[in-house]
Amino acid sequence: MKKILLFLFITIIVIAVISYALTLTHNIPIGEKVGIIRVEGVILDSRNVIDELKTYAKDSSIKAVVIRIDSPGGAVAPAQEIYKEIVKLKKEKKVVASMGSVAASGGYYIACPADKIVANPGTLTGSIGVIMEIPNIEGLMKKIGVETKVIKSGKHKDIASMFKSMSEEERKILQSVLDDVHDQFIRAVSEGRDIKYENIKELADGRIFTGKKAKELGLVDTLGNLDDAVNLAGKLSGIKGEPSVVSKKEKLSIWNLISGNLPSELIKKGVPTIGLKYMLTP
């Protein structure tokens, strides 16, 4: 009886292991692969993208990475952090940027360091510039009879306060900050695309381009869709035949709400605040 039970137990374990192995091989391609990282929507944080970049960098089966971008840009620092991480990854693996409907401003910024950039003919890209939006409700506060008292440690501590009008001196200070960050953008594109600084500066007035026009200007390398970008990545990395593809699947759940992942993003979007943005705005 004991032998029969032991046999049944071992059989169940073996079946479970085989089933698990079959599940893995069904969901995860075997052999040399191309990893896809999706950057979608406004870029507010770099953490998830950088984590994926580092994961693919360590995975020896991933021979190349495609950054799929469908974003109008976003905050400056996260875009710069993603840019730098892509530069690091390029030292080990080929990186191709694939542009969707929009890859403008910060979306274009993070595409620049890729080995190749693939855009659709109708992709909206470019928008090489910086914007700072500061709401002003001084007039409204006066109408409703509310007055704000400010106690500050320095003359310009409340330089971006929404409760007062901006002075000419304050405007000049903020403009100098924007000019500095704008120059960083131009240099990043110049270095990433290996195009002279002066040539990029002529295009860096915030204007947008179609993917077709961007190719003519040297801002992208070729026209095509995501599949074309994946095939190009496979070719650049020496993968024979059609590459297998892996990507992280994002799931929305109640746990996201409980753990605070979504609220943090909603707070960033919903609360007025001063911030520098590499972003295409309507």
Question: Could you state the order of secondary-structure elements as H and E?
Answer: HEHEEHEHEEEHHHEHEHEHHE
How much of the sequence lies in strands comes to: 15-25%
Distance between the termini: 76 Å
Instruction: List low-pLDDT spans.
Output: 22-29, 255-273
Taking Cα atoms only, what radius of gyration do you get, to the nearest Å?
Answer: 24 Å
Describe the largest sheet. 8 strands, mixed
The CATH superfamily is 2-enoyl-CoA Hydratase, Chain A, domain 1
Structural class of the secondary structure composition? Answer: alpha/beta
Number of structural units classed as domains: 1
Mean pLDDT: 85
CATH class: Alpha Beta
Strand segment count: 11
CATH architecture: Alpha-Beta Complex
- Principal-axis shape equals extended
CATH fold type? 2-enoyl-CoA Hydratase, Chain A, domain 1
Helix amount, in percent?
40-55%
**Total helix count?**
11
Describe the structure using short key phrases.
282 residues; alpha/beta; 2-enoyl-CoA Hydratase, Chain A, domain 1; eight-stranded mixed beta sheet; three-stranded antiparallel beta sheet; 11 helices
Provide an overview of this structure.
By secondary structure, the protein is of the alpha/beta class. It has helices at 2-27, 47-58, 76-90, 106-109, 138-143, 168-193, 197-203, 211-217, 226-236, 254-259, 261-270; strands at 33-40, 62-71, 73-75, 94-104, 116-119, 124-126, 131-132, 208-210, 222-223, 244-247, 276-279. The protein is built from 11 helices and 11 strands. Helix 4 (106-109) links the parallel strand 4 and strand 5 (116-119). Helix 2 packs parallel to helix 3 and helix 6 (168-193) packs across helix 7. The N and C termini lie far apart (76 Å).
